[in-house]
Amino acid sequence: MRSHQRGVTLISLMVGLVISMIALLGVLTVYKNAIRNVFGSAGMVSSAAQDGQLSSGLLTAQMVLQDAGFGIGAAAAASSSSAASASTGTSTAATSANNLTLLSSATFDGGSQQLSGTVNAISTTASAGNVLLWESNPNPASASASYTCMGLFSDSATNALYLLKATNACHPIASSWNNVTWSKSTLIAAGSLAQAVSFSVKNGMTCWPFGAIPKTISGIEPPSAAVQATLSYTNSTVGSSNSYAICLSNFSS
Amino acid sequence: MTSSEILYTGRLRQRGIASLLIILLVGLSMAAMVFGGMYYLRGLQAKTVAAHAAAEAQLKAWTGVEAVRQYLYQAGSDAATLPVFTGDKGSGQIQLQGLSGVSATVMSVTPTDPNCSTTNPKGTRVNVNLTGASGPATSTVEAVYCASGSPGTQTSSSDNSINIKGDLNLRGSVTYKGDSSNGKLNVQGNVTAAGSISGFSQIYSTGNISLTGSNSINALFSEGDITLTGGNNNTINVINSLHNVSMGSGFNAVLINTNGTVALGSATSADTINAIGDVSLSDQATVGTLNTKGSVTANGANVTSAMVQGNYQETYGKANGGQVGGAPPYVANCCVAWNTNVKLTNAPGLQVAVSTLTTTTLSSSVIDAYTVKNSANYIFDVDAQNNIQVTVNNVNGIANGTYYLTTKPVGYNTSNNWLCTKLNGGTCVAQICHGFSDVNSCFSYSNGTWSVNGGDNASNPPLPPPTMAPGVVWFHGDLNAGSGTYYNTMLVTGSIATSGANISYAVNFADYNNICQNKAFPGLYPTNFCAVGATSLTPNLLGNVVFLAGGYVGNVFSGGTVDLSASNDTYGNVWAADVLKTGGSTTIHGSVTTAHQSGGSSSNEFGAKTIFDLTKLPNSFTPGAPLVAPTSSNSSAVVLWTHYR
């Protein structure tokens, strides 16, 4: 055994050490870069989380938002004249003034579970905000007392998006929104977006979800609704600014 | 230093392994990191795909929303009859033909819903769940509609078709004369024909068609079987059957399409056969092109070209070329040694494209003489003592009202067929018919049957036609239309039979001179056909009818048979609420509609020498015209609410 230990010189040892040091350095540099690309602030994982949260969160937001105005009033909502409904005793169709509320600079008090903010009137020009609240009536036969309210809350502090559900009576939403107790569920988790989702709403539109076939083709009056909500967001692509519009099919004005 | 020396040199081993281990570990953690990142990306991709598929499913669901709205727009308040989801799988489904990936289920239908009443009086609320599917994703939109208004009656195409409901037996010689594209004989029942049939462009039957004898028909279409036997060198251009076709000797076909089987008898021929079922060919059957998804059994046939998905079996016949899916041999044991004329190639797995025939929707009419009673100019009925009463409407020279049909004393004689205010001794306003002589009444009534006979040829000079004052007449009961020339549309609640030498013209068919300026009853004309100052007839829909029979009292149907068994010339459209029977020498200058409303075993019989002549029609007459004007649709539908479920 002793004879085998001989023959290792200091020079060869040093040369070996230097070569392995260089190799290690290179590997560690690659390692560091890989860490940054995968887990870094603009890396794969955070981008994936952000875009994934956005796609599923906005899909849910879009689907619940379509509920707005459902079952409210003897709605001339969609396509026939809204004038006729006013003349009768039954309640009128859902309108953006009565059944939809947009708040800006709104905050949510986690303790009292109530909202505070500024009401932005909805008009033919788009108005922006970070909370959108609406009424719907799951059972069209029932009275206004049983209307249910839901909302979307975009927290500008944490860039999270929440779905709000009123836990008590909420009609009329335009005046009672700040007295209602809301339960909150997360659609987009806090901290996953670089910038908060923002809402803008306008009425006086002629729109329909996924578009309607014009009368010149189908021969009959197309369905149309008057209120359009736009959700604006940024995704993982640097400098991106996206938005998509949702036609709220149950509102006549 | 040998390798074993390196391995066993402790320090060297330790040092080298340490570096390698670090590199290995770093590499491993990097790989783990990258795989972790990939896992995240994979998750993102799955979410993106899910969002994309969901959007597509949503689009399909919204397409369904619009499709159902368009349907309800047409249906209007008829939507109240839609089937509703009961909890059973498949109940309440609406088929959206041509829209793939969308299903619709009617959840509730509420007629005269208050939610609909503001914009649409008495609207029907319809809740429909529309589910769009794209790959694994589905999206369901609940749409609430209000449908209202009447969809109106369908406009029937005003062609010169003979529309028959109930079985039809054709015997003797039956001929269609007229525009060849119009001679359609539509039968909602079985057709059995023997004898000579000619001129029809197509015979369509919802049942079976069975033809025997000499025929000249362009096309046959049957939703059942077609059986042709005992022909005499007859060629039929198109034979379409949703079931089986059997063609016996004496028949040739240019094209046979069938969803079932084809059997060609000996010495028959077909230029082209497209069959979904099997084909059997007897000896000397000649086929040009044979396409079948089934098998072929031939026994001495001569086939030019064959595409056969199944097997092929021939004995001593020929097949000049083609492909067969089934395995050879194609010649049976008897003849395989010498028959080299079957030149077919084997093509395993051959798929032969044969398109499936589909049915045509035939229009149906409900015929009821009571519904057109008030449009008649003369309404014939009896009082409690069986005295004949006539209610007159819109006749020039007679005030509207009800009169007795009775005699008027003239000197020592009595003159017949007068309308008088009383049975005896009243004021007589007009004579409306000429009997065989002035002492004969045209009309008799017995046990619910009316007889009309007249035509005074004994007078000197003979009285000109018509026998009876022109206009629309309505009889409560059965009618035996006897001798005479009539310019009358005859509406009868029971059945109509002709006898003697009956010549009847529908009001629209008789021209202006015969109706508005007739010589036999000067000044007695129907004002609704003769506008003041007009020089031509003002036709109306009912005026196209020459005979209409049958009616409902409550839900009880009676009568409805039109029997033209005597020698007739009939000018106008014939409407039989049950069946039509012809015989003798009958010529109908107009279209025929029968409705088989008795639902019994009665069948339509066209026999002896029957001619449907649609040539030389006057302008004021419209063959195939409906009885009442189609009402226009005022239906509409709106989407009340929608949301995702």
Topology summary:
The complex is a heterodimer of chains A (253) and B (645).
Chain A: H1 2-5, H2 10-39, H3 44-65, H4 83-86, H5 96-99, E1 100-109, E2 114-120, E3 127-129, E4 131-136, E5 148-155, E6 160-166, H6 173-176, E7 182-188, E8 198-202, H7 215-218, E9 227-233, E10 242-248
Antiparallel strand pairs in A: 1-2, 1-4, 3-8, 4-5, 5-6, 6-7, 8-9, 9-10
Chain B: H1 3-8, H2 10-75, E1 93-94, E2 102-110, H3 114-117, E3 124-134, E4 137-148, E5 162-165, E6 168-170, E7 173-177, E8 184-188, E9 191-194, E10 196-198, E11 202-205, E12 209-212, E13 215-216, E14 219-222, E15 226-229, E16 234-241, E17 245-247, E18 251-258, E19 262-264, E20 269-275, E21 279-281, E22 286-292, E23 296-298, E24 302-308, E25 312-313, E26 318-319, E27 322-324, E28 345-346, E29 378-382, E30 388-392, E31 401-410, E32 413-420, E33 428-431, E34 443-446, E35 449-452, E36 471-475, E37 478-481, E38 484-486, E39 488-492, E40 496-498, E41 502-505, H4 512-516, E42 545-549, E43 551-553, E44 556-558, E45 562-564, E46 568-571, E47 573-576, E48 580-582, E49 585-589, E50 592-594, E51 604-606, E52 609-613, E53 636-644
Parallel strand pairs in B: 5-8, 5-50, 6-9, 6-51, 7-10, 7-52, 8-11, 9-12, 10-13, 11-14, 12-15, 14-16, 15-17, 16-18, 17-19, 18-20, 19-21, 20-22, 21-23, 22-24, 23-25, 24-26, 24-27, 27-28, 29-36, 35-37, 36-39, 37-40, 38-41, 39-42, 40-45, 41-46, 42-47, 45-48, 46-49, 47-50, 48-51, 49-52
Antiparallel strand pairs in B: 1-2, 2-3, 3-4, 4-53, 29-30, 30-31, 31-32, 32-33, 34-35, 43-44
